[in-house]
Amino acid sequence: VCNGARALAIDVGGSHATCAVVADQQILASESLPIPDAGAFGGFLPGLAESLNALLKRCGLTPPECAGVAVSFPGIVDPFSGRIFATPKGKYDDSSTLDLRAWSQERFGLPLRIENDARMALLGEWHAGAAQGFDDVVMVTLGTGVGGAAMMQGRLLRGKHFQGGCLGGHLPARFDGRECICGNIGCVEAEASTWSLPGICRSWPGFAASALARELTLDFAALFRRSGAGDAVARQIRDRCLHVWAAGAVGLVHAYDPELLVFGGSVMKSADQILPFLADYTGAHAWTPWGKVQLRAAQLGPDAALLGAIPLLRETC
Ligand SMILES: [Zn+2]
After folding, report:
1. Is pLDDT of 131 > 90?
2. How far is the CA of 69 from the centre of ligand 1 (A)?
């Protein structure tokens, strides 16, 4: 890194942001802040600066002892200019007008880099987690949506419009499937993700009479619990979701030629019921004459996006 292996890190989520001071593979101090007005991000910047300064103080550090500020953001961004092109629906609508690099220079005298949250998670797992020692990696996050990022030969794939490798959840699993939020039809996340699961369940034959219908929240925790307890409808839906993710995984192997697939996200709390199936399916159906792609669960959880700070700054500063 340009200036020591320390950095300020910000992980922006849907309703919270986490600020941290990181040193190489370690988080020295961190703090989670609720984002008060999801419509506006600019008004939240003073709170972020205050939090980062307090964390620095707690670590006995000053800004010049850090290489820069690294921001993980849930949208399409240009890491070099700091511009934000697309945000989650209805959130942070002002962010395309913000000059985050100028903010960082003014508040800390430090360069700022920003990257998509799925790419940051991959960078973190590569630097300090499940993907250490691999340079050709695809990461998939199974959560509200299905996120993704790809690294080839040790370089993050970004593409001309900064969406390269990030849309693995929007690879079609069916051409005649469910409508997706992205405009496409039958995307992996339209067919198997936390946001699409309630609709999938309600339209499943026999759902109303199933044990699953008694769940207040139709999420994957409920689905795996009910299928484990033997509910037939829950088992059918679970098996279908596993097949959707598996078909998506084969597509990602064919697209990006990885040696390792890392699966993270909240749905992976049920990793023991997901990974073996995905490994068997990709082993049987991915065309990899060189051998077999490895599959691993992510190790760092939400820390990955913070621990991606050092490699991001190292790569782009
Ligand atoms: Zn889609």
Report:
1. yes
2. 31
